[in-house]
Design goal:
InterPro entries: Carb_Esterase_6 (IPR052940), SASA (IPR005181), SGNH_hydro_sf (IPR036514). Residues 1-222 form the Sialate O-acetylesterase domain. Keywords: Hydrolase. It comes from Brassica campestris (Field mustard). This is Sialate O-acetylesterase domain-containing protein. There is one protein chain. The protein is built from 6 helices and 10 strands; from the N terminus they run E-E-E-E-H-E-H-E-H-H-E-H-E-H-E-E. By secondary structure, the protein is an alpha/beta fold. It has a single domain, classed as SGNH hydrolase (Rossmann fold, 3-Layer(aba) Sandwich), CATH 3.40.50.1110. The strands form 2 sheets. Strands 3, 4, 5, 6, 7, 8, 9 and 10 form an 8-stranded mixed beta sheet that branches. Strands 1-2 form a two-stranded antiparallel ribbon. Strand 7 (160-164), helix 5 and strand 8 form a beta-alpha-beta unit. Helix 1 packs across helix 6. The two termini are 17 Å apart.
């Protein structure tokens, strides 16, 4: 979810870098904001998670593509990036640092922006394909995570759009994908990233794939909550939390 589109290994310098290419679908817009690591609202721009996932090289993800496609239906869109790459679902359980930090950021987003939660965008799981215990427990942990998050944000029907993995870091990809595709929770829609083109590392989606994924997530979001494009139905700030992403 943090985005590795356009990230590559610069063999001349032996470092991982981002190519800096921002497709038009991911352009900045004064009506699209993001909550910084310092809990301040700024105009959103790629890489969206640059100050959140600080130990990784970030590139293009699906968040800006998503936001640009829905912003005309809202007054303003607030993105709340929360993703940290390479993490397991066990690290996102209630009581763990990442979970509590996400809830804190989501609540601060509404308190400071005066907006309302619209959706959670969730794309995670590659690290859970390595160990059979993590993979087999993925569905239970995922359902608990979604239920805990809705409870703590006091939004029992909060729309959640999650992504079924395109690839995994280990041999249990099919187990994790099955869990993602079969959560069977109300107002949780899953889009399947399988088949989208990958970067040369064979693990992360290309920039164009991230753009396409954002479009797929919009379709899934609107299937939960149909919003006519003819008028802006929501005044004020609408908050999206990216996970990991919240949409306000």
């Amino acid at each position: 979810m943090a985005g590795r589109g356009g990230v590559y290994n610069d063999s001349t310098k032996n470092i991982i870098v981002w190519d800096g290419v921002i497709p038009p679908e991911c352009r900045s817009n004064p009506s699209i904001l993001h909550l910084t690591a310092k809990l301040e609202w700024e105009e959103a721009k790629e890489p969206l998670h640059a100050d959140i996932d600080v130990n990784k090289t970030n590139g293009v993800g699906p968040g800006m593509s998503f936001a640009n496609l829905v912003v005309n239906r809202f007054d303003k869109v607030g993105l709340v990036p929360c993703s940290v790459g390479g993490t397991k679902l066990s690290q996102w359980q209630k009581g763990e640092f990442l979970y509590e930090e996400t809830v804190k950021r989501a609540k601060e987003a509404v308190a400071s922006g005066g907006g309302s939660y619209q959706a959670v965008l969730w794309y995670q799981g590659e690290s859970d394909t390595v160990d059979m215990v993590d993979a087999s427990d993925y569905k239970r942990r995922l359902i608990k995570f979604f239920n805990d998050l809705r409870s703590d944000l006091q939004h029992p029907n909060l729309p959640i759009v999650q992504v079924a993995l395109a690839t995994g870091a280990g041999p249990y990809l099919d187990v994790v994908r099955k869990a993602q595709l079969e959560t069977d929770l109300e107002n949780v829609n899953c889009v399947d990233a399988m088949g989208l083109p990958l970067e040369p590392d064979g693990l992360h989606l290309t920039t164009s794939s991230q753009v396409r994924l954002g479009q797929m997530m919009v379709d899934a979001f609107l299937a939960i909550r149909p919003i006519p494009s003819s008028a802006k139905l929501f005044s004020g700030l609408s908050v999206l939390v990216l996970f990991p992403l919240f949409l306000l």
